[in-house]
Design goal:
Layout lengths: L4 H17 L9 H24 L13 H6 L10 H6 L2 H11 L3 H12 L4 H8 L3 H22 L1
Helix pairs in contact: 1-2, 2-7, 5-8, 6-7, 6-8, 7-8
């Protein structure tokens, strides 16, 4: 979500530390995972806002165009791109899909990442994003349609 592996690692570490500090207040065993998801998403949003305010993000937020180096270092395929064998497996089609996802508005990109990358249900996605079920559905639908249009235009 941030396009920066080091920043993402810091955000996740902060989320785990926050959970640790509040461990006595967690009421049941399903709450820690939900707490972490919400905490990580909020941390990503904060980092992106801070970056755009400081002008550190030349692409105008994560939805902007990223260069190839940033594309290779971020996203769900980052580990695959680290070895020569994995680079072969990471085909041109996957790179095009990842680039199309990066062009989406923040809310749509978050919905797609949570639903399909993290494999959350619509209800869990709505809870993490703090939005209604209908908004998750419409954001996901619009995102998939936009990705499809982008891929058709590129072919």
């Amino acid at each position: 979500m941030t396009g920066d592996r080091a920043a993402a690692e810091d955000i996740v570490q902060d989320a785990f530390f926050g959970l640790y500090r509040r461990w006595d207040g967690v009421p049941n065993m399903t709450a820690p995972l939900a707490y972490l998801r919400v905490s990580v998403m909020n941390g990503c949003r904060t980092a992106l806002r801070r970056r755009s305010r400081l002008g550190l993000w030349s692409g105008g937020g994560f939805g902007g165009n990223l260069d190839e180096a940033a594309l290779a270092e971020s996203g769900p395929f980052a580990r695959l791109a680290e070895s020569a064998e994995a680079s072969v497996l990471l085909g041109e089609e996957q790179r095009l899909v990842a680039a199309a996802l990066r062009k989406l508005p923040r809310r749509q990109r978050e919905a797609v990442v949570l639903r399909y990358y993290l494999d959350l249900s619509i209800e869990e996605t709505a809870q993490v994003m703090g939005i209604s079920l209908g908004t998750v559905k419409s954001a996901t639908h619009r995102a998939l349609a936009a990705v499809g249009r982008t891929l058709r235009e590129g072919s």
